[in-house]
Backbone:
């Protein structure tokens, strides 16, 4: 934010108007999740692809939804709650970020920058940042459930389980999220 933009932004906020730039990127807060996106298109596309199925969708509708941001965070919170039930793990202080990226190449690029390793990812959970990075193009309920399971498992155990066990629990959650 530069010094010239600040008074304008304050003015917009006072008048209740939204500056044009705010339509591009933003964040939204849920109970468990802070969602970060860089374009409205990503947000819309993510929302369309995140089909929770009949049972879980009913829980989303019970929440207070006005905007598309409300709907997306309500869906993410609903999936988190369901994965907790599936794993029977309810860690305290569970709060994570979800970052929407356009495609697999973007997720792989972020991964390579952080870890210095080349790997193809449609999504991954960063243990050190408490953050899920996900490709909007490849978004499905199973993918979100899998990554959220990694977050839950990581917050639940004081000593981190071995990698294969971590992965096994994430796969279990992915498989049973629609039960
Ligand atoms: Zn995994």
Residues:
């Amino acid at each position: 934010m530069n010094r010239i933009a600040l008074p304008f932004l304050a003015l917009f906020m006072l008048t209740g108007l939204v500056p044009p730039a705010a339509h591009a990127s933003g964040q939204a807060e849920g109970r468990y999740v802070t969602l970060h996106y860089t374009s409205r298109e990503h947000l819309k596309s993510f929302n369309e692809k995140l089909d929770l199925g009949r049972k879980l969708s009913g829980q989303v509708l019970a929440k207070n939804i006005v905007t598309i941001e409300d709907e997306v965070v309500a869906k993410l919170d609903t999936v988190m709650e369901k994965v907790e039930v599936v794993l029977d793990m309810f860690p305290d202080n569970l709060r994570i970020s979800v970052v929407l990226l356009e495609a697999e190449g973007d997720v792989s690029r972020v991964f390579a920058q952080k870890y210095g390793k080349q790997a193809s990812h449609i999504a991954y959970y960063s243990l050190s940042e408490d953050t899920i990075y996900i490709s909007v193009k490849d978004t499905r309920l199973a993918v979100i459930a899998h990554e959220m399971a990694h977050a839950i498992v990581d917050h639940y155990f004081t000593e981190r389980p071995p990698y294969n066990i971590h992965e096994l629990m994430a796969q279990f959650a992915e498989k049973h999220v629609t039960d």
